[in-house]
């Protein structure tokens, strides 16, 4: 299948690119002018189309001759994705969203849900894949920084009790889920949550990461509520702030999800965090971002 892939220079898109090639498809990648990570595609036998996912004209040109569009670069570009796919006559479209569409906080879920609505109303053969937090290599935004911090520090600060739930998914497992959503006809017209295998409390996530590094890290609890109250007061006084009080509240929100639908329709079977994090530790050691293992 000829697949136009957006987001191939990123964490999930990179794993999807490898999967598409290994499964015998012909990916073409839409890459922004000025992408700092375009070099990541150098070793791949693929066609590159320059353009922005927010520009339906760029997407339309890149879609010429494609059988499907796998849009990983951000669900906020749904309007141009839908417009371009319709104009190009490419009906099969898989769009990657986020489990933050389930958040009780409107500032997180609202924009995602609105964009999902654009895809659902498109009249295309759509599927929406919603990853939970993705980890697995130096390309991830959260866990690789956590590992680097734990690698250097014997203590780790935790805001609040650290009992809120997370369900991070290893990038290759998430990519497998998205890929199966693309190739299985049963996935048309469905949305799938793609979290890790089971939820774990934030403090356990940190402990598991420290164990994977071979570290005995001491967790130091910091109270969350005074920070939130101070932010709330500063907001009332209209002081400019780097973070909103509702973002602090979101830190307390459980991010736990079921994946029965994905398991049933896509054969989705993500690995446990303790396995994925060991792979990430090995990867970060390989590229020299954390210290080598001591005997
Ligand atoms: N990472 C997570 O924890 C997480 C969790 C839930 C959902 N998601 C969703 O999963 C998707 C992939 O996440 P990721 O972590 O792999 O992201 P990432 O590593 O930040 O990569 C983003 C990719 O999208 C490309 N991109 C962004 N804006 C673009 C534009 N206007 N035109 C063309 N390309 C553009 C980037 O290209 P450049 O090389 O030009 O930057 C890059 O290839 C995203 O839709 C994200 O919202 C991620």
From TrEMBL:
InterPro entries: ComplexI_NDUFA9_subunit (IPR051207), NAD(P)-bd_dom (IPR016040), NAD(P)-bd_dom_sf (IPR036291). GO terms for molecular function: protein-containing complex binding. It holds the Pfam family NAD_binding_10. It comes from the Bacteria. Residues 7-138 form the NAD(P)-binding domain. PANTHER family: NADH DEHYDROGENASE [UBIQUINONE] 1 ALPHA SUBCOMPLEX SUBUNIT 9, MITOCHONDRIAL (PTHR12126:SF11), NADH-UBIQUINONE OXIDOREDUCTASE 39 KDA SUBUNIT-RELATED (PTHR12126). This is NAD(P)H-binding protein. It comes from Rubrobacter tropicus.
């Amino acid at each position: 299948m000829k697949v136009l892939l957006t987001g191939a220079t990123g964490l999930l898109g990179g794993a999807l690119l490898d999967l598409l090639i290994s499964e015998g498809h012909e990916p073409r990648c839409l890459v922004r002018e000025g992408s700092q990570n375009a070099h990541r595609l150098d070793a791949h036998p693929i066609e590159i189309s320059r353009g922005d996912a927010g520009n339906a004209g760029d997407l339309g040109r890149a879609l010429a001759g494609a059988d499907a569009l796998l849009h990983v670069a951000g669900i906020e570009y749904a309007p141009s994705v839908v417009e371009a796919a319709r104009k190009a006559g490419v009906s099969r479209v898989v769009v990657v969203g986020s489990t933050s569409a389930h958040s009780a906080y409107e500032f997180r879920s609202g924009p995602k849900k609105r964009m999902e609505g654009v895809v659902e109303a498109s009249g295309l053969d759509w599927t929406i894949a919603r990853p939970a937090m993705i980890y697995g290599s130096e390309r991830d935004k959260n866990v690789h920084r956590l590992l680097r911090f734990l690698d250097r520090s014997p203590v780790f600060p935790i805001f609040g009790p650290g009992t809120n739930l997370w369900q991070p998914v290893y990038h290759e497992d998430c990519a497998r889920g998205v890929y199966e959503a693309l190739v299985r006809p049963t996935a048309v017209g469905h949305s799938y949550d793609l979290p890790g295998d089971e939820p774990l409390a934030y403090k356990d996530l940190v402990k598991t990461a420290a164990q994977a590094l071979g570290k005995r890290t001491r967790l130091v609890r910091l109270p969350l509520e005074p920070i939130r109250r101070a932010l709330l007061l500063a907001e009332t006084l209209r002081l400019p702030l780097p973070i909103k009080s509702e973002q602090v509240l979101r830190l307390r929100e459980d991010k736990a999800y079921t994946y029965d639908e994905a398991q049933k329709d896509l054969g989705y079977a993500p690995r446990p965090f303790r396995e994925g994090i060991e792979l990430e530790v090995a990867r970060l050691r390989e590229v020299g971002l954390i210290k080598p293992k001591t005997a």
